Amino acid sequence: MSSDSFTPRHAWLPRWMTSEHPLPWLLPAGALMVVFGIFPLYKAIETSLYKRNAATRKMIFDPTHNWSKVFLDERVWNALLNTLFYTGVALLFQLVLGMLIALLLDSDRKGYGILRAMMTLPLVIPPAVTAMMFLLMLNGSFGVLSRGIIELGLLPPGFSILGNASTAMAGVLLAEIWQWTPFMVLIMLAGLRSLPKEPFEAAAIDGASAFQVFFKLTLPMMSKVIAIAVLIRGIDLLRAFDYVKVMTDSGPGTATETLTSYAGRIYFGNADFPYASTIALLTLVLVIMVSTLFMRIFKVKL
Amino acid sequence: MELSRPWQILRDVVAVLVTGLFMFPILWWALTSIKPISAIFDKDRVVFFDFVPTWINYGVTMLGMSRSQLAIDQGIGMGVGGAEAYDSRRSIIDSMVVSVGSTAVTTVIAVLAAYALSRMAFRGRATFLNWVLGQRFMPPIAILIPLVTIYKTAGLRDTDNLYMGYLGLMLIYALINLPIAVLLMKSFFDDVPKDVDEAAMIDGATRIQTFRKVVLPMVKGGVAATAVLCFIFSWTEFLLSLFLTTDIRTVPVKIQTFVTSTGNEWGFIAALGTAAVIPSFIFILLVQRHLVRGLTLGSLKE
After folding, report:
1. Is residue B260 part of a domain?
2. What are the DSSP calls for B128-185, one per residue?
3. Given this model, what pLDDT does residue B70 score?
4. Model confidence over A127-153: pLDDT tens digits?
5. Contact between chains at A129 and B149 (C-beta distance less than 8 A)
6. Chain B stretch 128-187, residues whose beta carbon is closer than 8 A to a beta carbon of chain A
């Protein structure tokens, strides 16, 4: 009988336990997500519904306590503004610099391949190490970058960029922008290389200027690539933690405090787990809201 | 675009300068690691190359040499301190164990899940993918707070049992890397035509046989790229390692301990920092071809 050869090998097993069913394939990933992602998330939400008494260390169920406190807390608003400022400025610089450098390095000439490869190196340095690199270079008394800026007469001698509330954010952003501009360069390069040749040849015959070609052809044709790059970078920027933690520890005062660094400060400072959880969850809501909105408006998805 | 000769030369020069600008912090870092202490902390001028190179920083951090003995031998006026605090060999082992372990776990789990997500039609497929992607939106601090308690209950704390501590960190890194690994592997599987599977199954192969003998060999390069990216992201992770473990100190965390109240040990920081980026540099150059696809979670192909 020919139908025998189609009988699954483990006919004695129920189908959902065999490789014909998706369950066994998805089970390990699903289990990891549930145990280490979804369950802690559920716990975080639960914790945020309790009020912690600092004196007795007792937790009292009070669902509105933290969630109303969070909207009245001026430091939360400050942290939110800092987070949005940090994200916006970093994205702007990374996008513009990334595009310019990609245009510059998009050449088949000898040597450009090496330059492109070198450009990827900053991406893989641990952000905590990058933060230390810039901490050293921005040191007020012997940092090479600080000294350079002071020598140019832009800042008074001995000025500490990271120690000053008005310039600390710029210092942290410098590390962030240095490390992640190559991310944009790489993606823009891939986008540039995937463009069809014909429209550009036609434009050249019509005598279009380089600016016209860039704004009328390159940019519109790259819009999807740019949107995806901005989305991925934006998600990470809204959750940024490492640079702020290492370089300024949210200071001076609260000048560089972001939502995640504020949550960390509460957690490890006053051990108010419920309130720290609330702020961390607020960050998650912000990330989901902003990215969903972005995906709707620009019609991209990951 | 064809450029006239002078413009082409100008472009080459600018390209080299811009790349050089991005390489500068890395070079400065490496240079700092071989500088004697007097050259690092010179307050009167910035020392570029006019110093006598020293290997003391590597000796102390990488070989566990006694700091005070070396100081006496080389006649360098350095403070006397315990060598143990700066001996980073254990941290490098910690980082290696956790990164390699989590890479293995993530890759296996993600390859299995990605195959089903690419090949099988089932209810909840889109939902599952959304949950995987959702992990990427999560600020690590949100799950960190409950995880500390969960790990305590589950015996996954490194202070209770070192090996369980390694396992705990590996598993949470696996979760962090899951979105990128699953989505990236799915994009590689999607590149293989479904006819390949169907042909194998018509010949009587089961799903698992089709997967192992036919499809998996066709995405070998993709598996390697996924593993490399997982390794790099585990190697560079900071926040979870900082707060979840005490005895286990991965390299990015260890470096922070050289920041002391009496001053930062920049020589040691730079030496360990330089050594820490070498594995990542080697790996990233190996996967240049799939880098864009990896960094965009499989959305963009090069």
Report:
1. no
2. HHHHHHHHHHS-HHHHHHHHHHHHHHHT--TTT-HHHHHHHHHHHHHHHHHHHHHHHH
3. 61
4. 999 999 999 999 888 888 988 888 888
5. no
6. 128, 131-133, 135-143, 145-147, 149-150, 171-172, 174-175, 178, 182-183
If 0-12 CB within 10 Å is exposed, 13-18 middle and 19+ buried, where does residue A261 land?
buried
Tell me the CATH number at B198: 1.10.3720.10
Do the chains contact at B26 and A104, CB–CB below 8 Å? Answer: no
ipTM: 0.89
Question: A74-127+170-298: which CATH topology?
Answer: MetI-like fold (1.10.3720)
Out of A124, A186, A210, closest to residue B292 by CB:
A186
Whether B20 has a pLDDT exceeding 70, the answer reads yes
Rg, C-alpha atoms of chain B: 24
The pLDDT tens digits for B80-128 are 445 457 888 999 999 999 999 999 999 999 999 999 999 999 999 999 9
- pLDDT higher than 60, residue A2: no
In percent, the amount of chain A with pLDDT more than 90 equals: 64
Distance of alpha carbon A257 from alpha carbon A249, whole angstroms: 8
Q: What domain range includes position B233? A: 90-248+287-295
Identity of the residue numbered B301: K
Tally of domains within chain B: 1
Query: Chain A residue with minimal CA distance to B297?
Result: A302
Of A111, A124, A264, the CB nearest to B284: A124
Interface A-B, measured as beta-carbon pairs within 8 A, has a size of 265
Residues of A in contact with B300 (CB under 8 A): 187, 190-191, 225, 228
